[in-house]
Specification:
14 helices; mainly alpha; about 70% helix; about 270 residues; about 0% strand
Length: about 270
Amino acid sequence: MKALARWTALLVATVLFLLPFYLLLRNGLSTRAEITAPGWTFFPSTVHGENITDLFSLQDVPFAHSLLMSAVVAVVQTAGVLVVCSLAGYGLARIPYRHSKKVLYAVIATLMIPTSVTFVPSFVVVSTLGWVSDLRGLVIPGIFSAFSVFLFRQYFVDFPRELEEAGRMDGLSRWGVFWRIVVPNSRGFFAAIAVITVIGSWNAFLWPLVIAQSPDSWTVQVALSGLLTSQNPQLNLLFLAAAISILPIVLLFVFLQRYLVRGVTESGLKG
């Protein structure tokens, strides 16, 4: 009886989880008339595969270019976060400094500041530097993540000191110990932070909406808003674009979800 109840609960949860994806796929392969029709059909009588061609051939919304831009921003920003935040976290965990705790508390305090408070000053700085509608304006402000620094610091606090001491005895500097011993033995945790950062960068909307003022610099989320706010919104193309835009993140989560679990368990945030 318990097994039946468990399987029933799992089936209901699966249906609820897959329902939005079904709606995106169903509406994306339909016509606008079929979406707004009073009667409901489980799937359109004719699958309109030409919607895919229509989506990627739009003149006012460069959807293919926006996918590429989002991929570039996500990869570059993730690489920057891994380098900058891992160095900051390692320094706070290992380098002796009498004010290290104060610096850590200051980093944690930034997590309590709403993004809306720093949004305007950040835009003023980026605009002054001439980075509006530029890849630098999309990437550089997001390279430092206080949350990632905190996670790296928590992980490195519990990293075996014996391995680092062995490297120092072999003549490695602190820099050499970090890159040749600590990083290779922390690949799982680095992968966890990378997954979290890629998802956050790919789904970012407000900052790219303000910075990417030229269609050539639009990310996929800005392109979706362009489909929604056009004078003649094509609902079927909007649903199809949404389905395509979430596909990379769904695949990333399916294949790398174990690293998300490892990131929590190895960061010292266990309950």
